[in-house]
Amino acid sequence: MTTLYSPGTLVYLENSEQGWLPAEVSSCTRGAAGALTLVLRDENGKETTVTGSSPSDLPHLRNPPLLESADDLATLSHLNEPSILYAVETRYAQRKIYTYSGIVLLAVNPFEPVPMYTPEIVKAYIGRTKGELEPHLFAIAEDAYAAMALDGTGQTIIVSGESGAGKTESAKLVMRFIAAPKSPALNSDKNSFVDGASQVEQQIQATNPILEAFGNAKTTRNDNSSRFGKYIQLLFDTNRQIVGARVRTYLLERSRLTFQSQTERNYHIFYQLCAGLPSQNLRELGLDSDYSAFHYLNQGGPSTTELSDRDKFHATREALGIIGIDDARQTSIFQVLAALLHLGNINVTQTRTDAIIDDEDPSMLRAMEFLGVNASEFKKWTIKKQITTRSEKIVTTLTAPQAVGVRDSISRFVYACLFEWLVTAINESLTGKYGDAATRAETYIGVLDIYGFEHFDKNSFEQFCINYANERLQHEFNTYVFKLAQEDYVKEKINWTFIDFDDNQSAIDLMEGKLGILAILDEESRLPLGSDASFLQKLNTQLDKPANKAVYKMPKFANAAFTIAHYALDVTYQVDGFLEKNRDTVPEEHLALLTSSSNPFLREVLDTALHRVGGEPVDPASPNGVVSKIPDPGRAGLVGTGRGTSVKKPTLGSIFKSSLGTLMDMLRMTNVHYIRCLKPNQHKMAWEFNSLQVLAQLRASGVLETIRISTAGYPSRWTFEDFARRYFTLIPWRDGPSLIKREQFKRLCVLIAQRTGMDKTKYQMGETKIFLRTGVLATLESLRSAKLNAVLFLQTNMRRLVAMKRYRHFQRSVLGIQSHWRGAVARKAFKEVRQKAHREAEAAKAKKAAEAAAERERKRKAKEAASVNEKAPSEHGSPGKTKIRRMFSFGSKEKSTLALPDQPSPEPPLIGRRPSRLEAATKRLSRSWYDSDGSTSASAARSKSPNHLAPPASSLPVGSSSSNKIATPIYEQFMKKPAWNASTSLLH
Ligand SMILES: Nc1ncnc2c1ncn2[C@@H]1O[C@H](COP(=O)(O)OP(=O)(O)OP(=O)(O)O)[C@@H](O)[C@H]1O
């Protein structure tokens, strides 16, 4: 353990504000009893001392930097809470909102539009396997599609998370991706996702505004919060072509219809109706654009914006039209909605003991007119109650609050029925009236958008149901993850003792068991005198036993409450209102009134919701007598399916339990894919990450629980090839590359394990993979980076040495060439000057001689003339004259010889002559340069490089002042020329 915490080791320190802080071990000492004392320094330089003898007492280890922001948390070597949190946070800071955690995709809400769903990105993910590209919703959707296309197995994508985490947005994106035709063979317009929505996609999209208008509301946590769970099944035929879809909904929050807290609102549709309906229609329905006159709307906060309600109303109407609900039907829907608003305004007063409603109460009259129900009968059964005993029927009066309770329960019931009817209408549009698509469908991909685990200051029946659903989903998840892990061990034939993981079965048993909370609640709800207090008393008597010690607790400081230890955390539920909410069914007398209404639309709504045709019950699984191969994810009725109205009414809890059971059965038949949405802060601020809040969600979403399961086995598993290629550097050089070349990866893995001294209990060799226990990978990574650092150090210095040597050699050569060239140029210039001077001197000398000869001639002629004059008769035949003439002609010959100047001797031709020393040196240098560069043809290299030699002599100034200055072009070329290819590693 000391080695794990050696100085310099990176760890995490627990911090009350940020959850965890990165820190470094600055010293580690072992005490006498074996306990370690660590001094840790955090990022702010603050030192903390920690002492402990077991790993659980000591700080969590940090992963090596390479793994710290890994896109799959399952690859982290140290799988612990802070590592997971740190990885998610780091990636979010890098604007990467998606991260894999094994089979789960974590999606952190960006709270602003991100360019991650563009047509290019959609195209990129089509046909790619998970892990090929960055983590993304589309990768999960494509994975599900590929698995379904392969063997026709049904697929389910479960999208969960707390309110406002982004479930609905994610589910919509996933469905859009799946609804797009993928295979060109199936659809010639393979880009239809990108270029425009397909018809089925349009229909599916049309369901969103409808379900959102009737099932979503503004809450403190989300302005558009879905108040129900939904499962949308996209149906495919044998060609894997989408033929339709089916929607199932779960547990609509009914209480919202009659009560909202000040910061929240009722369902959007009521505000849309008041804002969007023309004033004439509003008058006809007794409504007003100022909805504050209605009790069901004025308890909550203001609308987000009037304009958006009006706009959305038009979108809702348009969508209703797309799914086949014409204007007349739409008017009927609005009439029922108006009736509910008027119901809420019925004035119930109180005499000393009894409730009173005025016969002429305008709200009651209007509501009954729209509902087609007799007003006096309605009034009677709102302020009175009939109890049927074995022998007689007793009618008693109700108090005003009780009468208001009855009034509100009728409103909630009618609204829930209307919602159910809408879902049926949507399904008819998506599958065809007679369930055409459902019969043709061979397989499916379902998307479950379900509320995440909830834990508030005050938790009631709704939270109990939601957390019960999450407990069951978590159980399925654990089983699936664990099963997958174990299947891999079996497939790879490693030694593995199957362990029974301590899962959440006991919490589930506590909630749904024969003598569990739901059973006791139902029993109490059916008793005429049952109350919340008696329910709690029974709970404590029956459940507060040693067998349930771990999951059921009686809180010390709350009287009317009980605590359940959920897999995520302990939640205390206030029993106040449990019975009323669980019963939430209308009195039988009211049910009879409603089902015999004179309003045919209302009768149809109720028949649909109660799964009856013309008052007779039908099988909810195949309401049209249609039998589909596709399993139905739950279609439980709102009330029983018995004959007439005298049926035993199931409670809300039992309805929920039964639909959840059907859903779980279906999930077990499918391949499940998980998307866990995380809300990074409560203020809906873009890119703000609150570590503590995310940590709580990671715990609640079961991500950390999965990690606990994983760490029980071999969380890291690598194929032999991947492992060998990454870690072969840890063994002597002679073995690694040769075994890789021969593809003996398994042998290489064994060698790596032996030579690095891996503890034999910490790894196992499978058939194709090596399985590693938690922490092993981190050790290998640190060994690898130490070795790589040493190699890099050597490489750096070697490269430096070689580069320096070559540079100096080159510098010397360049200087030599330059000085030689300068000398040659100077000599040539000097020679020319000298030759010119010589020629001038010769010319002057010749000129002087010619002048002298001319003078002599002149003088001779003068002399001759003088002597002729003296001896005129003897001019011819005189022997003296002949001699003189001969002498003269000799003199002219001499003169012509002297007049020819000296010619400079021409340079010998270069070809065929031996090169000078200078030329030879230049040639040598250039050859050495290109040879050292690795070029095989010096001449080719020369022709490529215009500056391979010093500039021509003519361009060099004679006597250049810097004789030791390297000619710039060559120097630059040298400097530009990479002496070594930087990417070339000595390792490879
Ligand atoms: N991928 C995303 N990109 C941009 N914004 C998003 C994304 N996902 C969610 N959001 C934002 O977060 C808000 C809440 O998302 P959404 O309604 O999907 O939450 P939810 O988990 O379904 O909540 P609830 O359970 O209350 O219905 C959206 O209105 C949207 O503004």
UniProtKB/TrEMBL annotation:
Domain of life the protein comes from: Eukaryota
Lineage: Eukaryota, Fungi, Dikarya, Basidiomycota, Agaricomycotina
GO terms, molecular function: actin filament binding; ATP binding; hydrolase activity; microfilament motor activity
Basic and acidic residues bias (residue ranges): 836-857
Name of the molecule in the record: P-loop containing nucleoside triphosphate hydrolase protein
Region feature (Disordered): 836-963
Stretches for region Actin-binding: 660-682
Record PROSITE patterns: IQ (PS50096), MYOSIN_MOTOR (PS51456)
UniProt keyword terms in alphabetical order: Actin-binding, ATP-binding, Hydrolase, Motor protein, Myosin, Nucleotide-binding
Binding residues annotated for ATP, in chain numbering: G161, E162, S163, G164, A165, G166, K167, T168
Composition skew (Polar residues), residue ranges: 933-946
Keyword Nucleotide-binding: yes
SUPFAM superfamilies reported for this sequence: P-loop containing nucleoside triphosphate hydrolases
Entries under Pfam families matching the protein: IQ (PF00612), Myosin_head (PF00063)
Family per record: Belongs to the TRAFAC class myosin-kinesin ATPase superfamily. Myosin family.
UniProt GO cellular component terms: cytoplasm; membrane; myosin complex
Residue stretches making up the Myosin motor domain: 68-785
A single BP term in Gene Ontology: actin filament organization
Classification via InterPro entries: IQ_motif_EF-hand-BS, Kinesin_motor_dom_sf, Myosin_head_motor_dom-like, MYSc_Myo5, P-loop_NTPase
Organism expressing this protein natively: Mycena metata
Composition skew (Low complexity), residue ranges: 950-963
